[in-house]
Specification:
The structure is a homodimer. By secondary structure, chain A is α/β, with parallel strands linked by helices. Chain A has one domain: Rossmann fold. Chain A contains 8 helices and 7 strands, in the order αβαβαβαββααβαβα. In chain A, strand 6 (168-172), helix 7 and strand 7 (199-202) form a beta-alpha-beta unit. The longest helix of chain A has 30 residues, at 6-35. At the A-B interface, helix 1, strand 3, helix 4 and helix 5 of A face helix 1, strand 3, helix 4 and helix 5 of B.
Chain lengths: 224, 224
């Protein structure tokens, strides 16, 4: 059931203008980042999937071999940026109290504030929301969608865009598998129905599962 | 950091119009439901918090004493509505492929499709998204926010509106507490910073924790 009243048509029209304007900034960001040889990942997920926890662990493993930087998006608080800052990796927090996603203009302003000299790998941690952020190109090289296995294996079917546009799906909190009613194989099949051949890495920071596979994925992105 | 370019101002203006139009439909829904003596809850949460699982369990417990009905919101699939239908409670599925939340017009159309004779308690399961649905009044009597404890105790601070507007916070998946690094007391304190005095019920369908407390909450809403 979808609304087709006049109001809805207006929303779609305006949305088009917003997305056009966003895409212009995204193209500028992409050109700016690629000219500097910075590989950029846009991390998407539901709230509480463990994006920041994975990122802190990743930075600790990579920071002595790859120069990294982070843009943190949140509706409120700078808690996540503070956790990243403890790794000594440069980080900028963007708060979006009026918005449910990062857009390319947010990222442009963050890029102006970040010390990018020598940076090779930029992580953009999007606002925790499996829907809206997927529609906004930020100028990244690829989208990485994270999904906690506590969310259930049906999520790729229910929120398809974030899975359809992802280059990689990172499953998180694999340490909880023995305590959940979660069918890993079915989850993968659901993801592949939306995005055939999608790469999937199953991880847990607490049990240290899949972290080298994830870090190797990042190394190949930077070193080729 | 917030965007203040012209484009953003336009978004806010249009958003205002959308919300005004929504509120008009919400007032109509509220009058329609209250005239029929139907108490209505709008359930908000992140994807995968266990809204449908809690709802199925709730309907099984209440359906012989309170006449219930359900409106299911999802971006895609009617899987949740099928799960509800197995309880024999009337249900309508709304798919919102272009939208990240239910609005009052969606609900109006669902009300036209639902057999409401004798219904006393209506659950509206919103799209899985802790941000956008909070901004849209559907005509409900109260919002109930669900949060899986796997999401972490900081969520009330990071996504404050859904917690600020809630009449009740239902924590889910309490059976996983022994396997998580989750501080229940801190979570409650965070929720109360956003919404002082907010009622909180901690539940698990798998360990049957808190379900009678939750059902009693619903009984008092219907029976007074």
């Amino acid at each position: 059931m979808t609304s087709n009243r006049n109001g809805a048509v207006r929303v779609i029209t305006i949305e088009g203008n917003i997305l056009e304007q966003n895409d212009r900034f995204a193209r500028q960001n992409r050109a700016y980042l690629q000219a500097r040889g910075i590989y950029t990942l846009n991390l998407l997920s539901s709230p509480g999937s463990g994006k920041t926890t994975l990122l802190v662990e990743t930075l600790d493993r990579l920071k002595n071999e790859i120069r990294c930087a982070v843009i943190e998006g949140d509706q409120q608080t700078s808690n996540d940026a503070q956790r990243i800052a403890e790794t000594q990796v440069p980080v900028v927090q963007i708060n979006t109290p009026q918005s449910c996603h990062l857009d390319a203009f947010h990222v442009r302003r963050a890029l102006e504030a970040l010390p990018l000299d020598g940076v090779e790998l930029l992580f953009i941690e999007n606002v925790g929301n499996l829907i809206c952020p997927a529609s906004f190109d930020l100028g990244e090289d690829e989208k990485v969608t994270l999904m906690s296995i506590t969310e259930g294996e049906d999520k790729p079917l229910k929120y398809p865009l974030a899975f359809h546009l992802a280059h990689l799906l990172v499953l998180t909190k694999m340490d909880l598998l023995p305590y959940l009613h979660f069918d890993l194989e079915l989850c993968k099949q659901n993801a592949w129905r939306i995005n055939p051949g999608l790469s999937i890495i199953a991880t847990s920071v607490y049990s240290q599962t899949g972290l080298e596979e994830w870090c190797n994925y990042l190394r190949t992105r930077v070193r080729g």
